Amino acid sequence: MTKRNVIEMNLPKADDLFSTQEERDNENREYVKAIPLDQIYDFPNHPFKVRMDEKMLEMIESVQEYGVLSPAVVRPKEDGTYEMIAGHRRKLASQRAGRSDMPCIVRDLTDEEATIIMVDSNLQREEILPSEKAFAYKMKLDAMKRQAGRPSKNLSPLATDLIGKRSDEILGAQVGESKDQIRRYIRLTELIKPILDMVDDKKIALRPAVELSYLSQDQQEMLLDTMQLQDCTPSHAQAIKLRKFAEEGRLNEDVILSIMSEEKGNQKEQFRIPRERINKYFSPGASVKQIEDTIIKALELYRKRERSRER
Asked: In terms of CB atoms within 10 Å, which of 61, 241, 288, 310 comes out highest?
């Protein structure tokens, strides 16, 4: 029995037989159109908060008077609706301004391309919260890793310079952060929301927050209870201790309370006297230490005199 030679033929699709090249090119070309707001859905797990702040109020006024001047970027979904890539704030402003639609650039994008554009467009904001950076960096880094091995034909000069480097190094170069700083921000995604909110509110600094991210959720919950009861937050040194005890399997409520009860240098009670009230007692060139030493000596003399009077 002889084997037949199979000849593979790349036959054109039926749609291609009855359409022109120009029509096929137009299908892949982006275009601008006004899209009803109720047909535009937010990007899944959008990491950037859309806040009703002063800038948003200004944007609403602008949209009421002039409309949306810069089109948003969306990509079409299979059900005929659209997914927002860049323009969540403009969408909210349009809704609050009483608009029913907004101009959008419709662009056919892969999941990875959409994620990268979404993150890049929002990182241009003046104020970005640590939590926003954390989830945005993680989303973009994951997308970049998925794209690895599938480089675009049209590489940017930056991408060309960074060929062969790690994804976190490339991301760091793009956003102006070191790869270590990128990792620190991404660690914040392991924090429970109440503690992450404290990082956003500047109650906990980045470095101690990174250490706390290595605690389990249950341990973070115990720490949160202690912070609320004691009205305190951990220093970097305390956070390192908490992580160390957690890694050794010895972190419990008593240990957390003991560590958080330690006095921090910046929590020591301070007593200050306005300089202008004591200037007349010292020469113009007196240093703070000289003034402090002189006051202490004067108080010691005063105490000795009072004690002699009591005898």
From this structure: 241
